[in-house]
Amino acid sequence: MNILVTGGAGFIGSHVVRKLVTSYPEYHIYNIDALTYAGNLENLSDIEGAQNYTFLKADITDIATINRLFTTYKFDKVVHLAAESHVDRSIEEPLAFIKTNILGTMNLLNACKSIWQDDKKHLFYHISTDEVYGSLGNDGLFTENTSYSPNSPYAASKASSDHFVRAYGETYGVPYIISNCSNNYGPNHFPEKLIPLFINNIIEKKPLPVYGDGNYTRDWLYVIDHAYAIDTILHKGVIGETYNIGGFNEWKNIDLVKLLCTIMDDKLSRKRGTSESLIEYVKDRPGHDKRYAIDSSKINKELGWKPSVTFEEGLMLTIDWYLANTTWLKNVTSGDYQAYYTKMYQS
Question: Total domain count for the chain?
Answer without folding.
Answer: 1
